[in-house]
Amino acid sequence: MVKQKAVATKEIMSDVDTLERDFMHYLRYHLGRELTSKDEYQLTALIYIVRDRLVENWKKTWDSYQSQSPKRGYYLSMEFLIGRSLRNNLLNLGIEGEIGEALEKLGLELEEVEQLEIDAGLGNGGLGRLAACFIDSCATLQLPVMGYGLRYEYGMFRQIIKDGFQIEEPDHWLGFGAYPWELKRSEYTRIVKFGGYCRSYVNPKTGLLIVHWEDAEEVLAMPFDVPIPGYKNKTVNTLRLWDASAAEDFKLTEFNQGSYFEAVAAKNEAENITMVLYPNDSSESGKELRLRQQYFLVSASLQDIVANWERHNDSYDNFAERNVFQLNDTHPSLAVAELMRILVDEKRLSWDEAWAIVTTTMAYTNHTLLPEALETWPAALMNRLLPRPMQIIEEINRRFLAQVAMKWPGDIDRQRRMSILGGQGEVRMAYLAIAGSFSVNGVAALHSQLLKEGLFNDFYQLWPHKFNNKTNGVTQRRWMAAANPGLRQLLDKTIGESWVTDLSQLSKLEKQLTNKAFRKKWDDIKLQNKQRLAELIKREVNIKVDPNSMFDVQVKRIHEYKRQLLNALHIIHLYNRIKRGDTDNWTNRVMIFGGKAAPGYDMAKLVIKLINNIAKVVNNDPDVGDKLKVVFIPNYSVSSMEVIAPGTDLSEQISTAGKEASGTGNMKFMMNGALTIGTLDGANVEIREAVGEENFFLFGLTADQALAKAGRYNPQDYIDNDHDLQAVMRLLEVGHFNQHEPGIFNDIIASLKTHHDQWMVLADFRSYVDMQAKAADAYQDKEHWTTLSILNTARSSVFSTDRTMEQYNDEIWKLPKIAVK
User: Fold this and answer.
1) What EC class is this (predicted)?
2) In terms of domains, do 271 and 396 share one?
3) Shared-domain flag, residues 505 and 463
4) Active-site option among 562, 605, 627, 795
5) Is 557 a catalytic residue?
6) Does 9 share its domain with 106?
C-alpha cells in the first residue's frame, strides 16, 4: 500500500513538473514575459496550458460525434454569461491541485492569478447565465449539444456608481486582445445578407416558386470556438461565437480620392453587429442593430449546421430525425424563417417539405410573463433589412391563420389575436416561434401554467401537446464546488464526491442535522464566506460590515417587477425604528444590493439612486452603527456572485407574484445554505415545496390575488391603515434622503401611490415587514438557523441543471449520450 502511494505521488510530481515547464514556455516564448511581470500575461500563460489539455479531449469529442453521427442538439442564444472560466475548467479537468502546486514552485498563488481573469462580456443576466449552466450540464451528461452565440467585443456596460447614480462605461472585455480560451475557425466563415430586394419566378419544369435575394449587403460571420468541458469525463463540447466583419474590408479607391469616412463605412457598419451586447433600442438605429444581431446569429448558425450536414449526407430525408434546435427566448426566433429560406430557396425543397422539417426540429423556451418583453419588429424595418425572411414570415402567417380559421370558423377576433403580424403590421416574434416549433416550454411550474392560462392561451387551445414545463436550474460545479470550496471539502468528506455530478446525494446531509461537529464546521464555513464577502464590500465600496450580522441580499437585474423598491421601503422602516428607539431584541443586518438597470430604464436607475441615498444616510448616522448597514455593490457580475452567494444568510426573492418566470439566483443561494424570503412567484413555489413550507419566509399576494386586484388597486388604503407605512412615506415625501436634491424621488413616490402600479408594492408592504421580523427573530436562534441552512442545501438537488437537461433531453431532444474514449 505504501509503495502504491509513492508511485502515485511520483506520477503527480511528474505532472506538476510538466505543467511548470509548459507555463514558463508560454510565458517566455509566446508572450515574451518573465515571472517578474505580475500581470495578465501570467493568466494567459496559465490558460494556454489548460487549453492545451482541453484541446486533446475536444478533438476526441468531435471525432466521436462525426464517427457515430448521432442526433445533434443546437442551443441558440443571444447570451452566454460564462463569467470566468479558469476555475471551472480546472475543476472539470480535475487538475486544480497539480496546477496550484506547479505555480507554488514558481512563487505564484493560483488564487491570485485567477483574480486577473475578466468576466467574459457575453451576457447580462439570468438568461445568459442559464445558457452557460445548460451547456456545462450538457457536457457533463455527455450530450452532443453545441452552443451558438455572438462574440460581443463590448459587454453590456461597466456600472460605476457616482453620487448614487448609475454611470455606464464601456465594458471592453476583449481589450487585452483575443480571448485566450477561444480558437479562431476561419475555415467555417459564413456570409449573412441584409437589405436588397427579392426577384421571383416559377420553374416551368417543377412548378416551384424560385426566389432570389439580390443586391444584398454581405457580412462575414467569423466563428470563434470556446471549449466547454464536462466534469472529468473527457467530453469537451463547443460554444461557437460569431464575429462580424465586412466582406469588403477597405475601399482603397475612395480613400485615395479623399473620401476617408466612406472608405471604411461598410467595414464599420458590419463590425457594429457584434460590437456591443444589447445596444440601446430606444432609437430606430438601435432597433435596427438589435435586429441585425438576431438575424446574424441565426443565419450564420443555421448555415453552419446545414453545411456540416451536407458534408456527411446526400439528402434532407432524415434531417429532422438527427437535428434539434433549442431557441433560448424569442431572440433567435428568426431561425424559423431562416431555416425555411435555406431549405426552400437554396436546397429547393417544397414549402410543405421544408415546413415539416422546421416544425419537427425547432423548440422554443419562453422566459417572460411580461407582454411588453415579448419582442416585436416593425414591418417596415423587416421589409427593408430582411426582405426575403419577411416574405417567408408573411406566408407562414397566411397558412397559420387558415389553420386557426379551420379550428374556429368565423372567429375573427381570435385570428387577430393570434396573427404573427400585429395590427400595425409588426412581427410578433414569440408567435412566430410557437407556430414554427414542436415544443414550447416555460421555465418554472407556475410560469408554464400562467403561459397556458394567460399569455399564450389561444395557442395552447390550438396545440396543447406543444406546451410543457422545464424548471430552470444552476450547475453545482460552478455554484457550489468552485464558488464555495470550504463547503465542497465538507461535503466530500461527509457524503463523498459523487454529489458533484449527482446532486441528489445532498439529501444525505439531513442525517447530519444532529452531528455537533458537522454543524460547527458548517457554521465556520459560513462565517469564512461572510468574511470573504465583507472583504469584497470593503474593497468595492469602502464600507466596513460585521460578518456576524445577518447578510440580507438582493442581487439581480434592477427592474420594477423585481421590487428592489419594496426592499428599500423596508430599510427605511428599519431605520425609522432605530431612530425612535424601537430596538429591543434587535437583529443587526447588512442589506446588500447589486444589479444593473438598462441604460434607457429611467425608473430602475432612479431606484438605484434611492438605494444609494438611503445607504449614505444610514451608514453615516451614529445612532445606527452596526445595527443596520446598506451596501450597493457596483458592476454586479458572475465573479462577484461567486463570492456573494456563499456569504448570504437571507435571499430576497420578492417579485410581484405572477411576474417572474423562474429566477436562478434563488437556486444559487439555496444551494449554498441561504434561507429565502419571497412571494409565490417563479421557482420560489418549487423552492418552498422542496425545503418545506415551514422553512420558507413566505409573504405577499398570490398571482391570482394580484390579478384579481388589478383595476381596483388603491394604494392610499394601505397607507391610511398602516402607521409604519405612513412613517416610511413621510420620510420619502419630506426629502429626508435627498435633502440637497429636492424633488428627485417624486417619480418614485408617484409610482407607489398611483392606482396603476401593476407591481403593487404597497399592497405587500405589511406582509413583507412582518415576515422580515420573523426572519430576524429566527436568525437570533443560531442553532435553529443552522438547521434551516443545512436543510436548504440538503433539499436543493432538484435545482441542478443536470436534472433540467435530463428533462429537456428525455422529453424534447431525445439525444443519445456519447462516451468519449
Assistant:
1) transferase
2) yes
3) no
4) 562
5) yes
6) yes
- What total number of domains does the chain contain? 3
* Catalytic-labelled residue, pool 519, 668, 795, 803: 668
Please spell the DSSP secondary structure of 493-555, one letter per residue: HHH-SGGGT-GGGGGGGGGGTT-HHHHHHHHHHHHHHHHHHHHHHHHHH-----TTSEEEEEE
Catalytic residue among 87, 428, 452, 556: 556
Of 155, 121, 293, 123, which Cα lies nearest the Cα of 221?
A: 293
Whether residues 695 and 591 share a domain: the answer is yes
Q: Find the catalytic residue in 664, 676, 786, 801.
A: 664
Burial class (CB in 10 A: 0-12, 13-18, 19+), 311: exposed
> What are the pLDDT digits (tens) for 174-223?
987 789 999 999 999 999 999 999 999 888 888 888 999 999 999 999 99
Cell numbers of 491, please? 461535503
Phi-psi group of 107: left, alpha or beta (phi > 0 → left; psi -120 to 50 → alpha; rest → beta): left
Active site residue 709: no
The vertex-12 CA angle with 6 and 18, nearest 5°, equals 140
Residue percentage of the chain with pLDDT more than 90: 88
**Cα distance between residue 617 and residue 620, in whole Å:** 6
Q: What is the DSSP pairing of strand 217-229 with strand 362-365?
A: unpaired
Residue 129 lies in a domain: no
CB atoms within 10 A of CB 153: 20
In three-state secondary structure terms, 368 is coil
Residue 730: active-site member: no
The answer to whether 653 and 434 have CB atoms below 8 angstroms apart is: no
Alpha-carbon span 2 to 764, nearest angstrom: 65
Task: Please indicate, yes or no, whether residues 219 and 268 belong to a single structural domain of this protein.
Answer: yes
- Catalytic hit among 388, 557, 605, 659: 557
Residue 504's Cα: distance from chain center in Å?
24
**Domain coverage including residue 583:** 476-799
In whole angstroms, give the CA distance from residue 794 to residue 791: 5
Which has more confidence, 348 or 258?
348
Are residue 546 and residue 438 in the same domain, yes or no? no
Which single residue is written with the C-alpha cell 410581484? 656
Lowest pLDDT segment from 228-232, 271-275, 747-751: 271-275
Rg (CA), the chain: 28
Q: 508: Cβ–Cβ under 8 A, 6 or more apart, which residues? A: 494, 495, 794
Contact 113, 43 (CB under 8 A): yes
Does residue 254 contact residue 271 with C-beta atoms inside 8 Å?
Answer: no
Is 105 labeled as catalytic in the residue annotation?
no
CB 197 within 8 A of CB 215: yes
Which one-letter amino acid corresponds to residue 492? Answer: D
User: Annotated catalytic, 511?
Assistant: no
Model pTM above 0.70: yes
Q: In this structure, is residue 806 part of a structural domain?
A: no
DSSP reduced 3-state for 222: strand
| Cβ 337 vs Cβ 391: under 8 Å | no
Q: Is 556 a catalytic residue?
A: yes
Catalytic residue among 129, 290, 341, 367, which? 367
- Cell numbers linked to 610: 434611492
Residue 356 one-letter amino acid: A
Q: What is the pLDDT of residue 271?
A: 86
User: Nearest to residue 297, comparing CAs of 330, 271, 334?
Assistant: 334
